[in-house]
Amino acid sequence: MSQSLAVRDPVGRPAAAHEPVAALDPRRMLQLALGALWLLDGMLQFQPAMFGKGFPQMLAGSAPGNPALVARPISWSAAFIGHHVVVLNAIFAAIQLLLGLGIAWRPTVRLALAGSVLWSLAVWWLGEGLGGVLAGTASPVDGAPGAVVLYGLLAVLLWPADRDPADRAPADRAPADRAPADRAPAAPFVAARAVGRRIAQASWLAVWLGLAVLALLPASRAIGRAIADTTPGEPAWLAWIDTHAASALTRHGLLAAIVLAAAFVIVAVGTFLPRRPARAAIILAVVVAAVLWLAQGLGGILTGSATDPNTGPLLALLALAFWPLSAPARSAGET
Amino acid sequence: MDGPVWLTGIFAALMLTVAVYCAGRLAVTRRWRRPTELDTDAGHVLMGAAMAGMLVARLRVLPAATWEAVFAVGAAWFAWQLLKSRRRAPATWRCLHPAPHLLECGAMLYMFLVLPPLTGPAAASGIAGMGASATGSRYSFLALVMGLFMVGYVARTADRLPSGRTADRLPGARTANRLPGGPVAQSNLPARPYLAPRCAALCKIAMGLTMTYMLVLTL
Q: In degrees to the nearest 10, what's the CA dihedral of A143, A144, A146, A149?
């Protein structure tokens, strides 16, 4: 069953004749989710508002507060985009669509993931001002350290390679490695398969401890105001949720920041724990990501002016890549 | 806040291409005796024509109420197929996976119901001239959910899209007609290879992406 591509239709029509159904391993599922998010980004980039002057103004708005070395290229690129906004925005949207389709189509997955890393780094700098990390204005509720950098990190962690032969598909293993075909994978979670456990855990620590630090910065303590800032343009039901959350947190900004930071720290150490508490930590990470996404007004998607869904869905996807595995993590048709 | 008309024009042209191509599939499937999913192809013909009319007002061929009735029937059909598929396998001319097509019909219904009638200046530019303020509604969360489903469906369809080498290895792709015992003798192979599987998948991808674009415009 290792290389089976086809699942037969009981009436005799092979599904493979028009839709080769390959069983998905967990990493491929996460790759497809990443591809779907790129597709969504591309479509958001095609929104009418992105073809106007507001888009380059939004990019230029990420420059203030950053060191000159970071800010100058941002201002220059925003001005350049402002002069050719229609053409360049269409190109940006097309690039994101191609990244999504490239990740989804197996023959181009490596190329698209490599492109994701390069594109996300470029956009993180020139489009998000490094998430405001160097400007001192970064707040997890506002989307720090920047959604797009998480795309790049996920592209690295979901790279279709395996450091340990036990994680490879049986047919791809060297003969000496085939004997223990049914033993548990060496990688404790999907994110460790390509880069190894230590590097994956280091990246996890960097993200969640970084979020904890950012949550305690003075700029982050006004959580109520940050949430209230997301409400303009939102549909009534979401604005109602965010307005009430903002008013509840306005007087307890410091306490809320401490609780949020504590949750980030618990999540950060979660991958070092045994399997059961590690799973609890991952579930907490997904819940925190969902709460953050709500606080971010679903990334502003429903306002017609968002270029991505913000950090909430990306953090949840990252958490799923660290879900402790208990059984062989791969099956047929894996990438 | 008008969107670029050329962009909606490109999507409209894409939808017309899909509609014409799927109509062609329906026309040749009997003549060439090659199996295809008739309900999917018919649905894509209708959706392609309807979406082209929503994107570019001049391409409208039927009033919105008629399209609403058409897609309500389509949704009922795929919902029925979905229920039936739980009990027994579908016939060769029906789609294997009705759920995405049910959602496509639902998305079409949603867009026809949520978009105000195209009259006055908006009529010239179709959906691009609507802008978020005109189309925003308390149900925009539905559009977001359907859009997320559609990008997931597109990703999964692209994942199954065979490369040239893989397609040649697929049962029924080329081997069926070359087997000495004939296709009928090989119970595991279809009598005829499926009609242009890669093109069918590309149609689904194009349809899913265009539908996502339109749903995003209604957010």
A: -130
Given an 8 Å threshold on Cβ–Cβ distance, is A20 in contact with B147? no
Distance CA A189, CA A198 (A): 12
The dihedral built from the CA positions of residue B44, B45, B46 and B51, taken in this order, carries a sign that is positive
Q: How far is B178 from chain A (nearest CA, A)?
A: 16
Task: Write out chain A residues lying below 8 Å of B216, CB-based.
Answer: 43-44, 46-47
Q: Which of B5, B29, B14 is nearest to B205 (CA)?
A: B14
DSSP, collapsed to helix, strand or coil, labels residue B52 as helix
pLDDT in tens, B145-178: 999 999 999 999 999 887 765 554 444 444 433 3
Q: Which residues of A touch B209 (CB under 8 A)?
A: 39, 43, 97
> Could you give the CA distance from residue A54 to residue B85 in angstroms, rounded to a whole number?
49
Taking the model in full, what pTM does it have?
Answer: 0.85
Residue A317 and residue A14 in contact, taking contact as beta carbons nearer than 8 Å: no
Question: Residue ranges per domain, chain A?
Answer: 15-321
Q: Does A22 touch chain B (CB under 8 A)?
A: yes
Choose among A219, A200, A227, A248: nearest CA to A310.
Answer: A227
pLDDT (tens digit per residue) in B2-24: 568 899 999 999 999 999 999 99
Q: Which residue shows structure tokens 């029906």?
A: B94
pLDDT in tens, B186-196: 444 455 677 78
Distance of alpha carbon B169 from alpha carbon A38, whole angstroms: 30
Q: Could you tell me which of A264, A303, A299 has the C-alpha nearest to residue A285?
A: A264
What whole-number distance in Å separates Cα of residue A103 and Cα of residue A42? 14
On the 0-12 / 13-18 / 19+ scale of CB atoms within 10 A, A250 is: middle
Number of domains within chain B: 1
Chain B residue numbers with beta carbons less than 8 Å from the beta carbon of A233 are 132
ipTM over 0.90: no
Look up the domain containing B33 and give its range: 5-217
Nearest CA in chain A to B129: A48
Question: What does the alpha-carbon distance between residue B180 and residue A263 come to, in Å, rounded to a whole number?
Answer: 67
In angstroms, the separation between the Cα of residue A52 and the nearest Cα of chain B is 8
Structure tokens at A277: 């508490």
d(CA B207, CA B43): 11
Helices (H), A167-235: 192-195, 197-216, 223-228
Q: Mark yes or no for CB contact A11/B193 under 8 Å.
A: no
- Say yes or no for a CB contact (<8 Å) between A9 and B96: yes
- What pLDDT was estimated at residue A91? 95
State the nearest Cα–Cα gap between A118 and chain B, in angstroms.
Answer: 21
Contact B18, B25 (CB under 8 A): no
